[in-house]
Write a structure and sequence with these properties.
The complex is a heterodimer of chains A (about 425) and B (about 260).
Chain A lengths: L16 H12 L2 H10 L2 E3 L8 H20 L9 H10 L4 H29 L7 H23 L4 H12 L8 H9 L6 H32 L15 E3 H26 L29 H9 L3 H16 L1 H4 L11 H21 L6 H27 L9 H7 L7
Antiparallel strand pairs in A: 1-2
Helix pairs in contact in A: 3-5, 3-9, 3-10, 4-5, 5-10, 6-7, 6-9, 6-12, 11-12, 11-14, 11-15, 14-15
Chain B lengths: L1 H22 L23 H13 L22 H9 L2 E5 L5 E5 L13 H6 L19 H10 L15 E2 L7 E2 L21 H16 L3 H29 L6
Antiparallel strand pairs in B: 1-2, 3-4
Helix pairs in contact in B: 2-6, 5-6
The chains are: A mainly alpha (about 425), B mainly alpha (about 260).
């Protein structure tokens, strides 16, 4: 007896032409089964709230970036004497070039908004815990690749902030003892940020999004192994706890995408430069340093951590450490309870962290002088205090609230919060 | 819980805003805020003002400032007729090569960019004590405050307060970072241009008109962008409402 499926052409039942074509393909490449198990009958917890929409929204941002990016690449020139002009040519002379470029710039910001909300949702509901640790790790890798891609993309228009941002961030690697200066020269492809730097950043900015697509596929693969966490944090027990992904979450995700596109379009059409820096409309000039060099808003919390440490190497290590730390979170958090709904102390700590991250973002955009320095240091210390002290201690000493038997059992006892 | 949070946030904000205020006391004056016709979701290019603004640019600003990203053909967008623009372009001399490869100066064409006052940056600096008058094509997008900032600079020249030490060859303007700017007041007195449409050329009027022109030059797609944006938002508003209703209907029998 062969373990291969039976060839559908051998079956005698009457079939429509469409069904025959589908069977013909499925016998050779089981793509419909794959689709069905991914977004079809795939069982998802029925109690997911709207905070669970942000994964698909991040995916939408990635698709927007790939599509608009391809068209921009057709008109962009990666050369230090021509890059700025080619971007202005896109804005002024390419048909709907302004739309492609503004969509690309705004969706980059929106991508970070979606991913940051996705991460905070994860933290609140304890999605990083057993058995989803690897899923969480892959997510952090996605964040790191996104950051590298966004940073290099911001350099491409070759405006003042592109150039000086690139200079400041690449110089950070010079902080490492002995090898630092060699690394920086190697990164630059010379002795300053110049044409070779621009060329390699363009090549990598084109490559990395496709790498990102690959990692996202692995992220979703790992997600489907144990399925989504849910607001109760309680495992799915029976079929009664779930609904099939299609149509329930396809329509809910589509509605989320509609709301997202509305907000996204408002920014693209009416405030496209809201999230950018005016200095980047000044062509790059290695002889003139802008009075205040700031990275894009989505890097500001990390920039604040970088500047909070008086020592350059210490600052660099703290900044990278702030993300690397997240890899250890599943073991730093000793509480077996996932959802903050049933963790009265952790809930407070979570909101403390949210406020701290906003504070870091605000301080990262301020000049490092006066009270800003002190506040930056307090906020930085608190960030590490949260993960290294609060989270382990709360897990040990907190008394969790009674946890429902199952998702279905939770319906009666729990007050709805932001439900869909 | 939520109330406590908002109190905390408010407190934190107060601390931040206080430090912000104390750190910025002696800094640049905030630009005056005007209700420009190009502001808002239905913002448009006031073509009459943009044409007057172009006249101000041609007669005054263009003595020092280039606008390299604007072609003569672009001026059709602000309502000049083709004959007017052709005549204007033809009145300028553009460096080119003839078909024997010899350098020549020929009359401008619609496809030429606005002729710059200086051949390059060094020549511009040499004529201005080392200061470089920036290209104005993107000036409105390239400055914090945009059109408000440009207007404030143009109308903000004043005598320096006693505690500000004068800088040689620079002029006092509280809206400029560090307050001392190399540009002499360009709109020094009323009537520096005679508007073709008869509008009285007060300093304020000239400043406003040139800002409308410069804003158009910085983002010539603005009007088309906003008009398309309204259509997109109306479509998405209806489409998203339908998606919401579909979602409600599909989920109506699920207890969750």
């Amino acid at each position: 007896m062969s373990h291969f499926p039976e060839d559908p052409k051998d079956s005698s039942e009457p079939k429509s032409l469409g069904q025959q074509a589908k069977d013909w393909i499925e016998f050779r490449l089981p793509i419909f089964k794959l689709l069905d198990s991914a977004v079809g009958s795939y069982p998802a917890p029925k109690n997911l709230n709207y905070w669970w929409n942000f994964g698909s929204l991040a995916g939408v941002c990635l698709v927007i970036q790939l599509l608009t990016g391809i068209f921009l690449a057709m008109h962009y020139t990666a050369h230090s004497t021509m890059a700025f002009d080619s971007v202005e040519n896109i804005m002024r002379n390419v048909n709907y070039g302004w739309l492609m470029r503004y969509m690309h710039a705004v969706a980059a910001s929106m991508f970070f908004v979606m991913v940051y909300i996705h991460i905070f949702r994860n933290l609140y509901y304890g999605s990083y815990k057993y058995p989803r640790e690897l899923l969480w790790w892959i997510g952090i890798v996605i964040l790191l690749v996104m950051m590298a891609t966004a940073f290099m993309g911001y350099v491409l228009p070759w405006g003042q902030m592109s150039f000086w941002g690139a200079t400041v961030i690449t110089s950070l690697f010079g902080a490492f003892p002995v090898v630092g200066p060699y690394i920086v020269t190697w990164l630059w492809g010379g002795y300053s940020v110049d044409n070779p730097t621009l060329n390699r950043f363009y090549a990598l900015h084109f490559l990395l999004p496709f790498v990102l697509v690959g990692i996202v596929v692995i992220h979703i693969w790992a997600l489907h192994q144990h399925g989504s966490n849910n607001p109760t944090g309680v495992d799915v027990k029976t079929k009664k706890d779930t609904v099939p992904f299609n149509p329930f979450y396809t329509i809910k995700d589509l509605f989320g995408i509609g709301v997202f596109l509305f907000i996204f379009s408002y920014i693209v059409f009416f405030a496209p430069n809201m999230l950018g820096d005016p200095d980047n409309y000044i062509p790059a000039n290695p002889m003139v340093t802008p009075s205040h060099i700031v990275p894009e808003w989505y890097f500001l919390p990390f920039y604040a951590i970088l500047r909070a440490v008086p020592d350059k190497l210490g600052g660099v290590l703290s900044m990278f450490g702030a993300i690397i730390l997240l890899f250890f979170l599943p073991w730093l958090d000793s509480s077996p309870v996932r959802s903050a709904r049933y963790r009265p102390w952790f809930k407070w700590a979570f909101w403390g962290l949210v406020i701290d991250c906003f504070a870091l973002g605000y301080l990262g955009g301020k000049p490092p002088e006066g009270n800003f320095i002190l506040l930056g240091r307090i906020a930085t210390l608190y960030y590490f205090f949260h993960f290294l002290v609060l989270v382990p201690l709360i897990g040990r000493f907190e008394k969790p609230l009674p946890i429902p038997e199952s998702i279905s059992a939770a319906e009666i006892s729990v007050k709805p919060e932001f439900k869909g | 819980m939520l109330r406590n949070l908002s109190v905390l946030t408010a407190l934190a904000l107060c601390v931040f805003l206080n430090t912000a205020a104390s750190a910025r006391a002696d800094e640049t004056e905030h630009p005056k805020q005007l209700a420009w016709p190009f502001n808002g979701m239905t913002g448009y290019v006031d073509k009459a003002a943009a044409q007057r603004g172009f006249q101000v640019y041609s007669n005054i600003c263009s003595n020092c400032h280039s606008m390299n990203r604007i072609a003569y053909r672009n001026l059709l967008d602000i309502g000049f007729s083709e004959n007017e623009v052709k005549a204007l372009a033809a009145s300028k001399l553009v460096a080119d090569f003839d078909d024997k490869g010899q350098a020549i100066m020929r009359p401008g064409k619609l496809s030429d960019n606005l002729v710059a006052p200086f051949p390059n940056e060094d020549a511009a600096r040499a004529a201005h004590d080392g200061a470089y008058p920036p290209d104005l094509s993107l000036i409105v997008k390239a400055r914090h405050g945009g059109g408000d900032y440009v207007y404030s600079i143009l109308t903000g020249f004043t005598t320096a307060p006693a505690d500000e030490k004068p800088v040689a060859n620079k002029y006092y303007n509280p809206y400029y970072p560090n307050h001392w700017i190399s540009m002499p007041p360009p709109l020094a007195s009323e009537g520096m241009v005679t508007y073709q449409d008869g509008t009285p050329a007060t300093v304020d009027q000239m400043a406003k008109d040139v800002v409308v022109y410069l804003q158009w030059a910085a983002e010539p797609e603005m009007e088309a962008r906003k008009q398309l944006g309204l259509k997109v938002l109306i479509f998405l508003g209806i489409f998203t409402t339908l998606l919401y209703l579909a979602k409600r209907r599909i989920w109506r029998n699920v207890k969750h």
